Amino acid sequence: MRSFSRLIIPLFIFLLAGVISLSEKVVVFLYHRFDDARYPSTNTYTEELKNHVRFVRERDYEIWTLKDLKDYLDGKRTLTGTAVLFTVDDGYLTTYTKAFPVFKSLGVPFSVFLYIEGISKYPDYITWDMAREMKEWGVEFGLHSYSHESFPSLLEEMDEEGLKKHFIEDTLKARNIFEKELGEKPLYYAYPYGHYTTVMREALEELGFSLAFTQDVGPLKKGFDRFMLPREPLLQDWASLEHLEYVFNREPLLLERFEPVDRAIKKGSQVSVSAIVSSSNTVRFLRAQVYATGVGWMEAELEGRKISHKELLVVTADQTRFGVRVQGEDGRWYYRFWYVPVLKSE
Q: N or C, which end of the chain is more exposed by having fewer CB within 10 Å?
């Protein structure tokens, strides 16, 4: 009996640790279309959406608004466990006809980033009247640009200064329409396609935006760049509960710097992937890996706070994401991804 007790108590603690995560992190869900099988790569079924809400509530995760997240990053709100946000990009019609009734019936706050040119213009998008109705209920709105361009691709034909000017013009055009139709200034932005550069980030900060979101996956925490906030796309196979379990098993990783940086690189060029882990991370790390689109995860060296991959990588993808992850002595993996625009080779 005594030996059984020695076995069962540590086993119980281990199992409990696997079920309850006390680590501080925020996970931002990303959706596009709902119940629209014509576009499987951007579609989520409303039954899956209901499962996501149920998953979050069964684990007592906090459900936040964009304002809550801003307050948290500003140091005005505390977090002792996990918080979740529900966000939708573009403003497709099914956001209003399919998702809005679900969120409303379940009492779940959510936000929509609007592709301004499409609203009240194309039949697959919501109207401004629909947006105003959702706003009245409590939906938060942000910008998803006016033109929905992949702005970094314009570096094929202009320099960074020209890109910044073009991006500002697009954003101001979108903001003016947004203010006219919804009666408030947008504070939040989601990069079209999740593609961004340093100068775009600078422009949004200069224009007075509070937060900007990418499509780099992973959780976040206080200390993350508020204009490079990651989100988790929940669509196709990634809408499954099995994928959600994987999503919440990842921990956020704070970096002081990383390479290659989010400025354009040429396709076919060789790059090194490395990062410096922030000293504010309290966990001791034992193992490191680096990631590149089209290559996957590779073992890396971990020397103190520096993560590096010995060999240079040849950039093959048109749009590339890089990442690092480290395993802590607590057994958990800590992640950080970033986007780098890739231009045509010369």
A: N
Q: Is residue 148 part of a domain?
A: yes
User: What's the predicted TM-score (pTM) here?
Assistant: 0.92
> How confident is the model over 91-135, as pLDDT tens digits?
999 999 999 999 999 999 999 999 999 998 999 999 999 999 999
What is the extent of the structural domain holding 293? Answer: 255-343
Do 283 and 336 fall within a single domain?
yes
Task: Indicate if 298 and 327 belong to the same structural domain.
Answer: yes
